[in-house]
């Protein structure tokens, strides 16, 4: 295996430019198709809110597109890899490069370099754009697509535990004693964990201690009676400081801000395995784009020159999609405590890096 990975500047620029253009084209197609499907399922809810119209649909698109780009950019790199390598194979350009003395690694080097740049751009894009749009979009969805809230720390779909009881809120805004919850539900459970009472209210404010629910509706599970109460205080053990810790959304925080949140959790003696796994995945996730040319290389070089180009393309695509399946499964196992956070985030990456490199060396080098 030769170690001079870029013996020709002209060839490097040719392959890198071709690959980059195909990545952009595939990403544009995926974003257009997926956003169209997303709007079909969401536009009814958006337009159902009072005062919403076409402007709010475009607002939703601007908030949703960064999430779609971040999620499907690695898929775009995979599809661009398959298309580029199949085209090179069909036009006998791979044969010409091999006849000129280039190894398989030298042929792939420009693609890997381009994919590495894409990974860096993806990480920066996630940090600067995706986290902010995610926080704003979740807060807007929690507000039933009402007036778009400013990016001011609004948290959505929060579940808080007070002993055996649970306090759920669709959104939380404010800090300290000024914290306010919206669309609140209080689940009171007995010592056996069985639900005994449920109270719903439109909002809750801090009562020092506890949280005051106004104009609430109480449902008694044992008697199946429903009553209305003007004022009731629940969750005396929950403080605003605890809520700020419990309501951390790793997807809506940048890498550095999440690092501080993890330190705060550890200082409070809280479990940080799930947050730590997502923290590591903020690095390993964008790096998945770097793997795609290696996993899709079978489309260019083949297995023992079988001549079945379509089958080899399917194999390359299957390897790429298998990585995403294993990556999501490992991250889920890490969230449940089955894997250590570091292993959950990085094991799929290095596993498929070794698989791709092994296939490439055994078949071409």
From TrEMBL:
Major localisation: membrane
Keywords carried by this UniProt record: Cell membrane, Membrane, Transmembrane, Transmembrane helix
Membrane topology, from the record: Multi-pass membrane protein
One GO term describing the cellular component: ATP-binding cassette (ABC) transporter complex
Entry superkingdom: Bacteria
Transmembrane segment boundaries: 20-40, 68-87, 107-125, 283-303, 309-326, 338-361
UniProt record, GO biological process: lipopolysaccharide transport; transmembrane transport
Compartment(s) of residence: Cell membrane
InterPro entries tied to this protein: LptG (IPR030923), LptG/LptF_permease (IPR005495)
NCBIfam families assigned: LptG_lptG
Protein name, entry field: LPS export ABC transporter permease LptG
Source organism (scientific name): Allopontixanthobacter confluentis
């Amino acid at each position: 295996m030769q170690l001079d990975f870029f013996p020709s500047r002209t060839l490097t620029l040719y392959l890198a430019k071709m690959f980059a253009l195909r990545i952009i084209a595939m990403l544009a197609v995926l974003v257009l198709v997926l956003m169209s499907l997303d709007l079909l399922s969401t536009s009814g809810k958006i337009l159902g809110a009072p005062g919403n119209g076409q402007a709010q649909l475009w607002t939703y698109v601007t908030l949703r597109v960064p999430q779609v780009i971040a999620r499907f950019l690695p898929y775009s790199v995979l599809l661009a890899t398959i298309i580029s390598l199949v085209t090179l194979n069909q036009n006998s350009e791979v044969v010409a490069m091999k006849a000129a003395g280039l190894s398989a690694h030298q042929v792939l080097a420009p693609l890997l370099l381009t994919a590495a740049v894409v990974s860096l751009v993806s990480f920066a894009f996630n940090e600067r754009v995706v986290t902010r749009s995610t926080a704003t979009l979740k807060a807007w969805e929690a507000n039933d697509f009402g007036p778009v809230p400013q990016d001011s720390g609004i948290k959505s779909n929060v579940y808080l535990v007070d002993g055996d009881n649970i306090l759920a809120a669709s959104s939380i805004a404010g800090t300290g004693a000024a914290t306010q919850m919206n669309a609140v539900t209080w689940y009171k459970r007995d010592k056996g964990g069985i639900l005994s009472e449920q109270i719903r209210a439109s909002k809750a404010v801090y009562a020092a201690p506890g949280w005051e629910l106004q104009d609430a509706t109480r449902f008694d599970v044992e008697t199946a009676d429903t009553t209305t109460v003007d004022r009731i205080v629940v969750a005396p053990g929950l403080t605003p400081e605890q809520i700020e810790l419990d309501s951390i959304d790793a997807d809506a925080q940048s890498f550095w801000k999440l690092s501080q949140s993890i330190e705060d959790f550890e200082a409070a003696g809280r479990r940080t395995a799930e947050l730590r796994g997502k923290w590591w995945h903020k690095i390993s996730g964008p790096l998945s784009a770097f793997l795609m040319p290696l996993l899709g290389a079978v489309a260019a070089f083949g297995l023992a020159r079988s001549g079945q180009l379509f089958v080899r393309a399917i194999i390359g695509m299957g390897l790429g999609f298998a990585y995403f399946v294993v990556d999501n499964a490992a991250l889920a196992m890490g969230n449940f405590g089955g894997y250590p956070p570091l292993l959950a985030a990085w094991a799929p990456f290095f596993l498929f890096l070794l698989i791709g490199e092994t296939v490439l060396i055994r078949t071409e080098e």
